[in-house]
Write a structure and sequence with these properties.
four-stranded mixed beta sheet, 10 helices, Isoleucyl-tRNA Synthetase, Domain 1, globular
């Protein structure tokens, strides 16, 4: 129980930290497929948790909440958002979209968990930006927030299986000391599901420097998902000292994205 509580409290702090400068939640049509994916997950989970709490089945509700926090929100979504949070421009539409998704999740998270962790959720409200609180100063004055239903058309199983198999290869390369970070890697695939994504979204999904449409020689590893090929290579460009992606043209130079943001 103590570990579950720490994860709940830390999740609240992480969400607030990522949205503290957000002024307004953007519309759903401006969000990426991964933003909509996590909102769809959160909407369903918080409804399940709310139903469990109303039925006094607190153990079931907390277990469901904990699985979502660890397996989907923290280990996938927040992880793939780190690059845009830290390195995109403050007013970047993609950054604002992900901040908006996190703000919506934070509002639903706080009002869903408040009945059993009232003091902790009130503490979060005291430090939350206006975009979450709408000006209220106490959890007792904050109305219940429900994430709207999301219409999403993606092959989630394919995306998750590809990410899982890549993680196995990443762990092997780390153990063999071939790489220190996945950003040293690039991926080739002929998977339409992956290639239909925005190129930056695809890179962030695997936390690599590039996702390519053409195969090369010298692959470090390969795998298949649903008959689609994936090959993993070491990146050929230089490391950007700002975002750490291997997208720079020369050593100690900024990549094109960071150059645009800085200047």
């Amino acid at each position: 129980m103590a570990e579950q509580y720490r994860k709940i409290r830390n999740t609240g702090k992480i969400l607030l930290g990522n949205v503290h400068e957000l002024e307004e939640i953007c519309s759903l049509d401006k969000m990426s497929v991964t933003d909509l994916w996590i909102l769809d997950k959160a909407q369903k989970v918080f409804l399940e948790v709310d139903e469990s709490f109303k039925a006094n089945d607190y153990s079931r509700g907390l277990n469901r909440l904990n699985h979502f926090i660890v397996a989907e929100l923290s280990n996938i979504y927040i992880d793939i958002c780190k690059d845009k949070m830290y390195c995109d421009g403050k007013n970047s539409p993609t950054r604002i979209a992900s901040q908006s998704a996190m703000a919506m999740i934070a509002k639903a998270f706080i009002t869903t968990v408040a009945p059993i962790l009232t003091y902790t959720m009130n503490e979060l409200i005291e430090h939350a930006p206006k975009v979450i609180t709408d000006g209220v100063e106490s959890i007792f004055d904050m109305p219940k927030y429900v994430i709207p239903e999301i219409t999403l058309d993606i092959n989630e199983e394919h995306l998750l299986n590809a990410k899982s198999k890549f993680a196995e290869i990443k762990d092997k390369l780390n153990k063999e000391k071939i790489i220190k970070s996945t950003l040293e890697l690039v991926i080739y695939t002929n998977s339409e599901t992956i290639l239909e994504l925005d190129s930056t979204i695809a890179e962030d999904w695997f936390v690599v420097s590039k996702v390519m449409k053409s195969s090369e020689e010298g692959a470090l590893a390969s795998f298949e998902v649903d008959g689609k090929a994936f090959e993993v290579y070491k990146g050929s460009k230089e490391k950007c000292p700002r975002c750490w992606k291997f997208r720079a043209k020369e050593e100690n130079a900024l990549c094109p994205r960071c150059e645009e943001v800085v200047n």
